Task: structure prediction
Amino acid sequence: VKRATSLGEIAAKGLCAGCGLCVGMAPPGSVTLEMSAAGFQRPRVAQALPAALEDKLVALCPGNQLSAPPGDAPHHDPIWGPYYRPMKGHATDAEIRFKASSGGVISAIATYLLASKAVEAIVHVGMDSAAPLQSRLLVSRDRAGVLAGASARYGPAAPLENINDILAAGEPFAFIGKPCDVAGLRNLAKVDPRVDRLMRYALAFFCAGVSSLRISESIVGKYGLTPNDVQLMRYRGHGCPGPTHIEAKDGRVFEQSYDETWSEELNQEIQFRCKICPDGIGEQADIACGDAWVGDSGYAHAEHEGWNALLARTKRGAELLTQMQAAGALYLEPIALADLNAMQPHQVERKQAVLARLAGMAIAGAMLPRYEGQNLLRAAWQGRKRFLGNLLGTRRRIKAGAHREGPVATTE
Ligand SMILES: Cc1cc2nc3c(=O)[nH]c(=O)nc-3n(C[C@H](O)[C@H](O)[C@H](O)COP(=O)(O)OP(=O)(O)OC[C@H]3O[C@@H](n4cnc5c(N)ncnc54)[C@H](O)[C@@H]3O)c2cc1C
Result:
């Protein structure tokens, strides 16, 4: 089995998730994050790195290496990973619930942690006002900051690009990110004790994958706008799922539905690494939140009041949810894993498919990431009817070069 030995290989062979951890942990300026021609954020190595440093960064990379989830949960499911209790719920604060992506549980937790002084800062992302289709790192210290970053930012976002500075500041914080962002921090925790000392909570959302910036550009392009014409782009939120909302600098406003944005557009250009992701559900987080997509007729994206499906994955996470429920900051009710399957069918399908896809990659001679403790064999058994189809399909796509990425675009 071939494994990546450099950051360049990780990016070129379709294994980079774009979290920014390598940039954040390399000496300033030696690795930078740049937008690739395909519309994803990728590391560019400015000067040859010492071998020991490059080895370290390659081992930290969550695209290349996923560690086993934390071990203190009482239950474990081959699809859903470790868990305390599956629930659905929402923020009781109406403004948070409205502005957030789903039910606002993540932003409610962030606000509660700041107000109770459990942490000094929330590390997350929000719109980049200099480039509103894109996202940038936010370090929020109050409710207004949390709300400014509420809701999902589709497309590239790299919340770890400054992580060394955040750890160096020495303040306790909570981290919000995609499952791979959290996985990167767990990799880092193995070699950097500051992570476990300072990161009091890791919160992840369920993630179907990172879409290309080119798709965001084509969405605004439909309305005759270039990225430069846009002053605000919200992918969802302000309702659930909430419209994609675009404000042009000349005052015009355009909106389109979630289904138009996600199902028809963004989904077309998901980076390769996300298609072989065994953890779209935040297995390494303390708490993982997703959408509770169920209508009367089952899985549905119609506009509704915001709800989250959520899982506490560690004792720390479970205790926080109990505390917040008692304080009236969250409304929560129990659900069964079968409900989660109905709310998140694509997560179930992908987890069942990952082993077959890795096998297809191996047969086609592609470089493989290392995945530990993800229960892929048991998940694949559940999806065995589609095993061969997934394997052959991936082998064909790899042979056609679907995982390959060109060099990052020059910024000169
Ligand atoms: C790329 C992407 C794919 C997703 N795929 C799924 C899916 O398959 N199934 C599903 O149920 N839900 C998915 N979601 C998550 C969903 O939109 C909600 O974020 C989740 O349900 C939590 O809702 P909330 O109301 O509690 O979050 P909120 O209270 O709105 O908080 C969301 C937090 O996430 C942070 N954030 C937003 N975008 C990013 C980003 N790109 N990278 C890092 N941090 C970010 C924000 O800063 C904010 O703090 C996805 C989100 C993204 C960004």
